[in-house]
Amino acid sequence: MNELIDMMVAQAEREQRTIIAISGHGGAGKTIFADALRERLGDVNYINTDPYITDSLLRKSAMLDYTVDGQEHHYKMTACHPSAHHLPSLERDVRMVREGIGFFTIDVPYLERTWIDPTKRITIIEGMSVAFLAADSWDVSAYLYTDSDTEFARRSVRDIQQRGMDLAYLQASHEERRLQYELFMHPQREKFQTIVSTSNDVWTIENHRS
Questions:
Q1: CATH code at 130?
Q2: Is residue 140 part of a domain?
């Protein structure tokens, strides 16, 4: 991870007003990396895009039909689908950052709002929603992902121990979520300058474009 931080800091120092984008699926290590990058960069703006994800109650009522390896699937929309994100709002806020306009982030029960200060040169935008923005929305970017087993292991610790989910239910939902991820989200990685695998807790830079 330190090598990746060094690369992104070097890129950010070459820009005036800089937007750093970090994306990937749940459990890929986005927030851990964003926190480490913020510690290295110092006093920067930070936008977590979780509040731009449509409420889970609405997503549960939105059923998707998709085909994988010739097999039909019918399952609720997960956050791996672009329609699960309120992209117009996120696009508006990214433009405000770019144009030097200050604003408060979305205030939600699980995340207190913060002020995006237009005098700060660097803004980090992190979360799944970022993957579905246009590539010209940012200046420096990284996409993180893991293999399915690693993702499930990380999510199960949180969802079973902290949220009390049933293991069998979590396994079934993970399999469909992963299918939707491979179909709708994973292809978005090609928009990012750096692609990183964090499988088995090993950070491997698979591709980098300066």
A1: 3.40.50.300
A2: yes
Between CA 203 and CA 200 the distance in angstroms is 8
Return the pLDDT at 119: 96
Q: Determine the structural domain holding residue 41 and report its residue range.
A: 2-53+84-208
User: Could you read off the pLDDT of 21-65 as tens digits, one per residue?
Assistant: 999 998 899 999 999 999 999 999 999 999 999 988 888 889 999
Would residue 73 count as lying in a domain? no
What pLDDT, on the 0 to 100 scale, is given for residue 209? 79
Produce one character per residue of 74-108: b if its CB has 16 or more CB atoms within 10 Å, e if not: ebbbbbbbeebbbbeebbebbeebeeeeeeebbee
Kindly state whether residue 64 falls inside one of the protein's structural domains: no
Q: How confident is the model at residue 147 (pLDDT cuts 50, 70, 90)?
A: very high
DSSP letters along 8-64, please? HHHHHTT-SSEEEEEEESTTSSHHHHHHHHHHHH-S-EEEE-GGGBPPHHHHHH-EE
* Count of domains observed in the chain: 1
| Cβ count within 10 A of residue 201 | 10
Within-domain flag for 115: yes
